[in-house]
Design brief:
Length: 399
Amino acid sequence: MKYVVILGDGMADFHRGALGNKTPLEIAKKPTIDRLAALGQVGLIKTIDEGLEPGSDVANLSVIGYDPRVYYTGRSPLEALSVGVNMSDNDTVFRVNLVTISDEQNLQDATMLDYSAGEIATHEAHQLMKDLHDKLSGGFINFYGGTSYRNIALLPNTLCQTQFTPPHDILDKKIGQYLPSGEGSAIFINLMEKSKSILENHPINLARIEQGKRPANLIWFWGKGTKPKLPKFEELYNLKGAVISAVDLLKGIAIGCGMKVINVPGATGNLHTNFAGKAKACYDALNDHDYVYLHIEAPDECGHQGDAQGKIQSIEKIDEVVDYIMKNLDQSGQEYCIAVLPDHATPLVLRTHVNEPVPFLVFNSARPAKCGLSYTENEGAKGVYLSNGRALIQYMMKS
């Protein structure tokens, strides 16, 4: 039996907002996903455990099969694993976004315009992070380039107590009340202010402005954590696993769990990612893996941007991915079990994550459940209920 999880990040939504009383899942044309839903089992799954923030970190960790209440030590250390950052048990790691803020002189008065600096190119981000490291590190903090706007900082031998806010939660809001707070916050605010002075006249940003792109004119700390200690996936589930994703978070989870990371050329983490390449990579990986986790970031990015049509389009592209994988598995004659779900909802009306249960489907080629439902939020409520993300892999293996 081959197992495939196709994770459409942030795919679920609310029945209100730009699309009236419909959700992107209800509007999108997704014939293959709906057919699999009707032939399989549909339900709702609570991917975010009570008391945890609704982030892709805890949700994906849980869906892959790990209890975040036991194993989660923060988002950034998982991303740091992907970047190759060496961590000790006493280090604190941070996600550092390159963001775009409005040009008020006083940082407190500025507005968060874009948490991704216009999805800045990775090579541009790496140069900016290198220059910031050279000018700001001072021997007490280290900066590392990641993918696009998603970068890393490490504070050696310090367990930080400062509180931070994710920048995607404060779009179009003045940032003053969301700046780092609590013990040690002055250090991070000072670094942010200095980064503003360095970045606003940086040649890369001047060129971006001239090209009509948003400048990366501030660094934003969030997602702090410490070195994770994860048991190996194969030891837990007796399955040889692989992960396909464009984002460092999922790659880091895979590395921490001892799963293979499969990189796909042209995989960007947005609506213009290489959907076809990801689909082929997923099917090919099943030749020598029992379990493949295919993560597609595009719906979440569109949700954060309030892009309704983009979110619909990304779901339709995911349907094409599912269609390719399923047809090739059928032709191969292999028995397989496919799950399709989001890690959380990213409602267009809120442009951030929420912790409501999300719809999932599971189809087992050897034992179809034939529930007769389609794949939407409302249809999911008519099916089975899984109380946590870890229940999905167990459900798939028992289905």
